[in-house]
C-alpha cells in the first residue's frame, strides 16, 4: 500500500478562546521572526530553538511552541530555496495555529462523540465541528490524522485537517499477450467546450461538458474588460481608482475559485468512471511562450483555458494516486486532425470529424481521445515494456500508414 497525504476542511464554531490561541500563536511567530532572519543569515529550526525557546516559552504549550519555531524557520528556508533570500524579517500577519494530532502529538484530537478536543490558551476545550459532505468519505478512510491548522478567514474559524490515506499501489500490467485488447488504457482529450472526453479500451465514453463554466468565464471576461477601461479612464483623470481595483480583484478571485472547483469535479468524475487499474493517457500540455505586459481578449481566454486543462490534469493525478492508477503523457501533435480508424488526415468542422478516406464520422473530441489512447499503446507503453502493440497499431503498421 502506498500512503498519500490529503487535507480536508473542518468548520469550527466562533470560539473566543480558540481565536485567542491563534492570536498568541501569531504573536509568538512574530517574536521569532527577527531573530530567525538573523541579519540576512536565517537560522535553522534547531539553531532558532536553541537561541529563542526560553524567550518565547510559556505562552503556548511546549509542543506548539516547537511547532511555531519550526514554521518560522521553514518560512525562511523555503524563501531561500526559492532563490528569494529575504531582505528583511517576515511579518506574520495572518492569525493561524498548528495543532499536532495522533501519533505526532496531542494538541488536538477528534473524539468518538463527534467533538474536537483542542488545546487553547484557556485550557483544553471540546468544540463541535462539521466536515463538509464532500470530504466525509475521505475522513472515514483516514489511516492516521496528522495535524490541524486553524485559521481565521472572513471572521470565521476554519480548520485544515491533514490526513494520511492508504492508496493501492499501481498494479503492474498483465503480460504483453494478455493486453492485446488493453481494456484499461484510457485516452483523454481536454478542451474548453468539452472539458474532458475519455475513451477506454472497451469504447466506453465519458463526456464532461465545460460549456457552463466557459459561458460564465466569458461573461466575467467581458465585465473585466469594461472595468479595465473604466480604470484607465479614471487614471487618466487622476481620480481615485481604489473601488474599481477592488471589484476587479474580487472578480478575478471568483473566476479562479470557479475554475478550481470545476477542475476538481471533473477529475473526480474521471476517477470514478475509469476502470480499476486503468492507465490514464493525457496529451502533453503545450505551454505558451512567456507574455510581456498585460494580456487581454483572446490571448487571455486561451491562457485561462490552458490553466483549466492544467488544473484538471493536476487533480486527475491526485485521483490516480488515491486509486492506484497510472498516468502517462503522449505527444499531442495531430491528435485532432488524424482519423482514429485509418490514421489518415480528416476534416473537422466544429465538433464533427469526418474522414474522406474510410468514411468514418464521429464527434471530433472522441476521435482525438482515441488517437491519444492509440498513441500510448504504440509508443509509451510499448517503449517501457508495459504493453504490446495494439491491434490498430499493428494493422496500421502493416498497411504502411502513419498511425495517429
Ligand atoms: Zn479514416
What tags apply to this protein structure?
single chain, 404 residues, alpha+beta, 2 domains, five-stranded mixed β-sheet, four-stranded antiparallel β-sheet, 15 strands, 44% helix, disordered C terminus, binds zinc ion, Cas12f1-like_TNB, DNA recombination, Transposase
How many strands appear in the DSSP assignment? 15
Give the SSE string: EHHHEEEEHEEEEEHHEHEEEEHH
> Strand content of the residues, in percent?
15-25%
Number of helices: 9
Please tell me the overall pLDDT: 86
Distance between the termini: 36 Å
* Spatial arrangement of strands, main beta sheet: 10-9-8-11-12
Oligomeric category: single chain
What structural class do helix, strand and pairing data support?
alpha+beta
Pfam families: Cas12f1-like_TNB, OrfB_IS605
Family: In the C-terminal section; belongs to the transposase 35 family.
Keywords: DNA recombination, DNA-binding, Transposition
GO molecular function: DNA binding
Characterize the structure shown.
In the C-terminal section; belongs to the transposase 35 family. Residues 312-372 form the Cas12f1-like TNB domain. It comes from Thermogemmatispora tikiterensis. Keywords: DNA recombination, DNA-binding, Transposition. The chain is an alpha+beta fold. It folds into two domains: 2-166, no CATH class; 176-398, no CATH class. The chain is built from nine helices and 15 strands. The longest helix has 32 residues, at 242-273. The relative contact order is 0.11.
Amino acid at each position: 500500500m502506498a500512503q498519500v497525504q490529503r487535507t480536508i476542511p473542518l468548520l469550527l464554531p466562533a470560539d473566543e478562546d480558540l481565536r485567542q490561541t491563534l492570536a498568541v500563536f501569531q504573536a509568538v511567530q512574530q517574536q521569532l521572526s527577527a531573530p530567525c532572519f538573523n541579519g540576512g543569515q536565517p537560522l535553522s529550526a534547531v539553531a532558532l530553538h536553541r537561541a529563542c525557546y526560553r524567550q518565547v516559552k510559556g505562552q503556548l504549550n511546549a509542543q506548539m511552541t516547537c511547532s511555531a519555531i519550526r514554521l518560522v524557520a521553514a518560512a525562511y528556508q523555503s524563501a531561500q530555496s526559492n532563490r528569494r533570500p529575504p531582505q528583511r524579517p517576515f511579518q506574520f500577519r495572518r492569525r493561524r495555529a498548528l495543532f499536532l494530532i495522533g501519533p505526532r502529538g496531542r494538541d488536538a484530537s477528534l473524539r468518538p462523540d463527534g467533538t474536537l478536543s483542542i488545546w487553547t490558551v484557556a485550557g483544553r476545550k471540546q468544540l463541535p465541528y462539521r466536515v463538509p459532505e464532500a470530504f466525509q468519505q475521505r475522513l472515514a478512510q483516514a489511516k492516521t490524522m496528522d495535524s490541524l491548522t486553524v485559521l481565521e478567514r472572513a471572521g470565521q474559524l476554519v480548520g485544515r485537517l491533514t490526513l494520511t490515506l492508504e492508496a493501492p499501489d499501481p498494479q503492474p500490467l498483465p503480460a504483453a499477450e494478455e493486453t492485446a485488447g488493453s481494456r484499461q488504457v484510457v485516452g483523454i482529450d481536454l478542451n474548453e467546450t468539452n472539458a474532458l472526453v475519455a475513451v477506454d479500451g472497451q469504447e466506453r465514453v465519458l463526456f464532461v461538458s465545460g460549456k457552463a463554466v466557459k459561458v460564465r468565464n466569458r461573461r466575467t471576461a467581458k465585465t473585466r474588460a469594461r472595468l479595465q477601461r473604466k480604470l484607465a479612464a479614471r487614471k487618466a483623470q487622476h481620480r481615485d481608482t481604489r473601488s474599481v481595483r477592488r471589484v476587479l480583484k474580487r472578480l478575478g478571485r471568483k473566476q479562479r475559485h470557479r475554475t478550481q472547483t470545476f477542475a476538481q469535479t471533473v477529475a473526480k468524475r474521471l476517477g470514478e468512471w475509469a476502470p480499476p487499474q486503468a492507465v490514464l493517457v493525457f496529451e502533453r500540455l503545450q505551454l505558451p511562450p512567456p507574455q510581456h505586459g498585460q494580456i487581454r481578449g483572446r490571448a487571455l481566454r486561451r491562457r485561462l483555458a490552458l490553466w483549466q486543462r492544467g488544473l484538471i490534469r493536476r487533480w486527475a493525478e491526485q485521483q490516480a494516486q488515491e486509486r492506484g492508477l497510472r498516468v502517462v503523457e503522449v505527444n499531442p501533435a495531430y491528435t485532432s486532425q488524424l482519423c482514429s480508424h485509418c490514421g489518415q488526415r480528416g476534416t473537422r468542422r466544429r465538433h464533427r470529424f469526418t474522414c474522406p478516406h474510410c468514411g468514418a464520422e464521429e464527434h471530433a473530441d472522441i476521435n482525438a481521445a482515441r488517437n491519444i489512447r492509440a498513441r500510448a499503446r504504440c509508443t509509451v507503453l510499448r517503449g517501457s515494456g508495459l504493453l504490446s502493440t495494439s491491434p490498430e497499431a499493428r494493422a496500421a503498421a502493416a498497411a504502411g500508414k502513419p498511425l495517429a
